[in-house]
Specification:
This protein has 241 residues and is mainly beta. The protein has helices at 2-18, 100-109, and strands spanning 21-22, 33-44, 48-63, 66-82, 85-90, 116-122, 127-133, 154-155, 159-166, 169-180, 184-195, 198-208, 214-225, 228-240.
């Protein structure tokens, strides 16, 4: 009888875990501050580039299920190798610490450090409005790339799709729930890229259940633009301050 009871509890527990579901919603509150750290590497036949960015996200307003989030870049490090030419820029370095190439890159990159991107986003992760000030060329690439969540709660094996269009590259992404724990939802990511280039993307993402914010993601993309293939790897972490 005791063995049967133990077996019953184990089976019941297993069924309960198998039926675990999670309702994914962005649960921002006014005053919340997040730090986003991104490491990116790009490799092609023409060049190699690595960059590191730190961005601060501030939830400045909340009305109903719509949040207003201001995003600023607080640090930027860029390393470029093109042929025999090597260029580096670190926004935390003073002018006298930069070489001539670094100073040239600073003149190109510094304007991005003054940009404020204000995004209105709902609890499903849908971006309703984006304002970039000052709206300099290329600043839209730093927009808060969110994940649009499904209306219903998800279970292991569930799949949903999302679309994004950034600087002429349209990405259709598929998210498949791989694991659900008490604190996180882990998803496998795959997708196709079209537009100015064609290619694919695959990776993993961990979504915090308490806030609905993707806390960690690793993405690998391969893009073919006019016969030139570029491999891009992006590691991103988001932490609440």
């Amino acid at each position: 009888m005791k063995k049967f009871l133990i077996l019953f509890l184990v089976v019941t527990s297993s069924i309960s875990l198998a039926q675990e579901s999670a309702l994914l919603r962005l649960k921002y509150n006014k005053g919340d501050v997040y730090t986003v750290k991104m490491m990116q590497s790009m490799n092609s036949t023409a060049m190699m580039m690595g960059n590191e960015m730190v961005m601060e996200m501030n939830v400045v307003a909340k009305e109903g299920d719509i949040s207003s989030v201001e995003t600023r870049i607080s640090k930027m490090v860029v390393d470029v190798l093109q042929g025999e030419m090597q260029m580096s820029f670190d926004s935390s370095m003073k002018d006298d610490e930069l070489d001539e190439m670094g100073k040239m890159m600073k003149s190109q990159m510094s304007p991005f450090l003054k940009v404020v991107i204000t995004t209105k986003i709902n609890e499903l992760g849908n971006t309703l409005e984006t304002l970039i000030e000052p709206n300099i060329a290329g600043a839209d690439q730093f927009k808060n790339q969110t994940v649009s969540y499904p209306e219903k709660a998800v279970e292991i094996g569930d799949v949903w799709t999302d679309e994004n269009d950034v600087q002429g590259l349209k990405t259709i992404t598929e998210y498949k729930v791989a694991k659900i724990t008490e604190s996180d939802v882990e998803v496998a990511v795959s997708g196709t890229i079209s537009g100015l280039g064609s290619g694919s993307v695959e990776g993993t993402m961990t979504i915090d259940r308490a806030t609905g914010v993707p806390s960690k993601s690793v993405m690998n993309s391969k893009i073919d633009a006019g016969g030139q293939v570029t491999n891009v790897k992006v590691n991103m972490t988001t932490t609440k301050n």
